[in-house]
Design brief:
Blueprint: E1 3-9, H1 13-24, H2 26-33, E2 36-43, E3 58-59, H3 63-66, E4 73-76, H4 82-93, E5 97-100, H5 103-120, E6 124-125, H6 136-143, E7 149-155, H7 158-168, H8 173-182, H9 191-194, H10 197-211, E8 221-222, H11 230-238, E9 241-252, E10 255-266, E11 278-285, E12 289-296, H12 300-319, E13 348-358, H13 363-373, E14 378-382, E15 392-399, E16 402-403, H14 404-416, E17 420-429
Parallel strand pairs: 1-2, 1-4, 2-3, 4-5, 5-6, 8-10, 10-17
Antiparallel strand pairs: 7-9, 7-11, 9-10, 11-12, 13-15, 13-16, 13-17, 14-15
The chain binds L-homoserine.
């Protein structure tokens, strides 16, 4: 039986998971592929005893893999931007195909990497970079290729979802984050998870693959979960909503919305039911309607599953003799539209507002009047006498969908009222109608 030779760079969480699944399911995978996958070289800075590398050439320098003539596919699992980029570009220059789980690399340098790969006639595959084990890039690029896709939205960071889920049960942010790190879910720098950078990387890639637009990570709006309080979680629940950290990409006539932020989602919506490290991505196509993909968004073997699926795809397309190719972003380059990212002021959303008001007559009327002056319709309002402290009371308001510009101006006017103290807390809400 023919074989395809892979070189694995990085034997951390994802590298380890990939190595283990490749070994365990070798014959099953070969059966699907029609040729064997042989690990021809492994490079990692810190070798671990738990992996049996007997007979596999090993080095601590990942560039040895990029320069090894015995390697057909370089599997980049070291993460980060700069070394990873140099490694991938070296592999491409040497005529190797690349499989990567590095969403930061693709979101930031993807346009350049794909151009280099195109020129050299090699493939760069990145399924494992988006939503861990869920084959959502395959779904968007191939399974939904008949559709015009207008919305892609969902939970695309497992660590953040794990933290929000546990906080709902009353646990502390810091403690849960440490647990997520120990479980191998978090990025090397966990601020990427909690501040939404990781999700913005993934959303950038999803939007490009779904809408056929260039990668534009630098224009993505990114807001994390570090300021979400147990109070807001509880009060959103009382209103019938759950706070989820969502990536939302929406195609509009004059641009795309590309934003990551905490979002209220109706508790009855299936996205609200997705807890823990699970991810869920909703993709709305004009022919198929709304589809949703959910599953483990992080973890060693779950992400390894997507890495291996890409190895199989690449091997099937080129290394094992067939010649099927899928364009990098699902569209042929000359069919891509040059749509830019809209400013946040132009997005449309519903809003949860928490206003710290003085507990005196007429305050609610003033709040309602400011909102009405800005054309903002109130869906629910909640204020509980039991929450009065020092003559101040939180007023929680849920609005109908409006433009972010309207809510910004209304918040400015609300904060200028003498009856309102502190900054108004605003969390965007989405009903997915
Ligand atoms: N840190 C990422 C997450 C890993 O928590 O989703 C998977 O990309």
């Amino acid at each position: 039986m023919k074989e395809v030779r892979v070189g694995i760079c990085g034997l951390g969480t994802v590298g380890g998971g990939t190595f283990q699944v490749l070994a365990r399911n070798a014959s099953l995978i070969a059966g699907r592929l029609g040729c064997n996958i042989r690990v021809a070289r492994v490079a990692t800075r810190t070798p671990k005893d738990e992996f049996d590398l007997t007979g596999i050439p090993f080095s601590q320098d990942v560039f040895d893999v990029a320069n090894d003539p015995d390697v057909d596919i370089l599997v980049e699992l070291i993460g980060g931007y700069e070394t990873a980029k140099e490694l991938v570009m070296t592999a491409i220059r040497n005529g190797k195909h690349v499989v990567t789980a590095n969403k930061a690399l693709i979101a930031v340098h993807g346009n350049e990497i794909f151009a280099a790969a195109e020129e050299k006639g090699v493939i760069v595959a990145y399924e494992a970079g988006v939503a861990g084990g869920i084959p959502v890039i395959k779904a968007v690029r191939e399974g939904l290729s008949a559709n015009r896709i207008d919305v892609i939205a969902g939970i695309i960071n497992g660590t953040g979802n794990y933290i929000l889920t546990e906080m709902r049960a009353g646990r502390e942010f810091e403690e849960v984050l440490r647990e997520a790190q120990a479980l191998g879910y978090a990025e090397a720098d966990p601020t990427f998870d909690v501040e939404g950078i990781d999700a913005a990387h993934k959303l950038t890639i999803l939007a490009s693959a779904g809408f056929g637009v260039p990668l534009q990570f630098e224009h993505a709006y990114t807001e994390g979960i570090s300021r979400i309080t147990p109070y807001d979680i509880t009060h959103a629940e009382l209103l019938g909503y759950r706070i989820k950290h969502l990536g939302i990409a929406r195609r509009r006539d004059n641009g795309i919305e590309l934003r990551v932020h905490p979002t209220l989602v109706p508790k009855s919506h299936s996205i609200a039911q997705v807890d823990g490290v699970l991810n869920a991505i909703l993709v709305d196509g004009d022919a198929v309607g709304q589809t949703m993909y959910s599953g483990p968004g992080a973890g060693d073997e779950a992400t390894g599953s997507a890495v291996i699926a890409d190895i199989v795809d690449v091997a099937r397309s080129v290394a094992c003799g067939s010649s099927q190719r899928v364009p990098y972003l699902g569209f042929n380059p000359d069919a891509m539209e040059n749509l830019g990212v809209l400013p946040m002021e132009d997005i449309q959303s519903a809003y949860y507002l928490r206003i710290q008001a003085l507990d005196r007559p007429g305050v609610l009327a003033k709040v309602a009047s400011v909102l009405s002056e800005h054309g903002i319709n109130i869906e629910s309002i909640m204020q509980k006498e039991s929450e009065v402290t020092d003559g101040r009371i939180p007023v929680i308001i849920l609005t109908h969908t409006v433009q972010e510009r309207q809510i910004n101006r209304a918040i400015e006017d609300l904060e200028a009222l003498t009856d309102i103290e502190d900054k108004v807390v605003r969390i965007r809400a989405e009903n997915f109608h």
